[in-house]
Records
---
Amino acid sequence: MTHEHFELTLVDRRWVTPRVLELTFVRADGQVFPYVPGQFLTLHLDTPDGEIRRSYSIASLEGERDRIVIAVTRVDGGRATEILNRLERSSRVRTSGPFGRFVLREDDGMDYILAATGTGVSPYRAMLGLLEKRLATSRCEIRLLLGVRNPEELLYGEDFLALARREPRFRFEACLSRSLSDPPASHERRGYVQEVLKQLPLDPARHIVYLCGNPDMIDASLNHLKGLGFALPSIRREKYLSSN
Ligand SMILES: Cc1cc2nc3c(=O)[nH]c(=O)nc-3n(C[C@H](O)[C@H](O)[C@H](O)COP(=O)(O)OP(=O)(O)OC[C@H]3O[C@@H](n4cnc5c(N)ncnc54)[C@H](O)[C@@H]3O)c2cc1C
């Protein structure tokens, strides 16, 4: 899919966790933005030192495809963070996209592990409709691990828990590095995503693993998976690195 340059208009903003701001846009030209769930877009933001470009995964649900939702982690001192935190409704932002190959593919007979830290869960939220269809049309099992610090930071947790309630072959686990609920909820695990991943019975002949978000989590998980004999095409990665 080729990418386009266009403007987005902000139509809604809300804090979805104490550190994550969700921004909802529509295209200023009224067109629908074609993308594949799992892809990201790039915002072109003006600063006193010129334009900076920052990428954000699309988090929109399937039914809201005329709306482009992104979830932005508050990075202290971050230049894009500061601009986006101040963005008011009706503001316009130059944008390009869609980009990326972190998308669901046809992997007949395989089960999926989807792992993320923080806003790295956005691509999986965009994939929710596809995941539900995949579960309905195959025997596959899907296990989603989301790493955050505490239960308040569980971004889009309700969306994933709702699917887990409807579909027994979908499991959602919150990997909490600082504190659990009191008493702990059944979907809560203590520790970092990469630590919980190490406790799973993973099999290169059976699993495809998606990793998204913090580069350290991705590197640690990648090393572990390679040690288990996973080939690189079975380990799909999207690292949230800062650019220029
Ligand atoms: C493909 C892709 C998709 C992405 N999707 C998302 C997304 O959906 N949501 C999202 O919030 N971000 C996402 N990012 C990261 C995003 O593009 C920015 O890097 C992030 O918002 C920080 O930009 P900034 O200008 O505010 O910080 P900068 O001014 O670039 O950085 C300020 C300081 O903070 C450090 N820093 C940067 N990012 C982080 C971080 N996450 N945690 C801690 N310290 C940090 C930097 O090293 C630097 O020291 C994605 C990145 C990529 C490459």
---
Amino acid sequence: MTKENKVSADFILHNLDSAVVYPNPYRGKGTKVGWETKELKHASIASKNGKIVWIGNSADLNENVKIESDTYFYNGEGLLAVPGFVDSHTHLLYAGNRADEFEMRVQGKTYLEILAAGGGILNTTNAVRNLSEEELFAETSHRLDMAMDSGVTTIEIKTGYGLDLKNELKMLRVIDMLKEEYPLRIVTTFMGAHAVPADRVNDSDSFVDEICQEWIPAVAETKSAVFNDVFTEKKAFSVEQSRKILNAGLKYGLKPKIHADEVNVLGGVDLAVEVGAVSADHLLMTGDEGIKKLVGSGVIPTVLPGTSTYLMESHHAPARKMIEAGLPVAIASDHNPGSCQFLGANMIQSMAMLQLRMSASESLIAGTLHAAHAVDMGNEIGAIEVGRNMDIALFELDSFKQIGYHIGQNYLYDLIIGGESIYKD
Ligand SMILES: [Zn+2]
């Protein structure tokens, strides 16, 4: 490369021990899924205005990158760089806790017994309704800090504990406050169809009509939410009701997501393909037929190994079969107060390996690039590649294989988001 076509940079992550790149990344519907990773030794990464402009061996930096007087050098000695984790499925915004319910479940109490003792989503709904926006912000910010501490640079957060329009809009405002206050990327999902409120169970069709005709237009007007999610399950929303809700969202520009096949196979996967959902999540019970339907559909199958572990399921999502079928499997935390308290991205990496038998490379790609696709940001984030945002997690580790291996331990050193250091500068 001659001097004239040097790229200019304002931030250089210099002298890294290694940086993990994806040689053949999935690039969206109709493209091939690559599961290979490559650890570039003695790497440097340069960015300009928050976007990666060059990656290579540190020895080649000077002949490829134009160093300005104000170019910032970040010393990467002894550090491993991986793409910042993307947690594409969370219910991070809630109030209170359900530790009693956790203990009851461990002791073998049934779902109905727990419900009778005041457990379940509606328990959290009451807690959320009783708190102010500032109180909800405070409770959630603590968890957001913990997610970032584990290497998360983008997180999706759902509403769905308001379950009336007033409180769903309150949740959206709190997520907006978090967006304002935090440096990480927050993606908002409206999930008014998370559960049917107790006083509407005999009248769920009119509840669905209310969501479609009143809530969705009001939510769209706030411009806060990108996605519209629905819990398609027995005792929640039927396929027909889910279709109504997702199509109503589409009319207002809200992209569909779906909680499918968690307990029963009702046809949530078919619906995901039909409406062009960005992702179908859980998929614990999805069989060969469902996997076949997902192939080539562009729907990102998102599996949540923390949840099946937390619920002590004997069965986990068939991630291996999905990978063998050529699907761009994503993993996420599903952090929520009832069915999954796993939160850290490093912990989800371990769960993907232990419970889903995914390799370290597969887990990393599923928790970064494919999870980025699951929030429709697959071309902007999720990989260390020229043109993408400079979102990087720096670990004091020799290899990315140690992230999942050191289960429950955290070796994060710093986060870089949009070419800015979050903790060290
Ligand atoms: Zn969920």
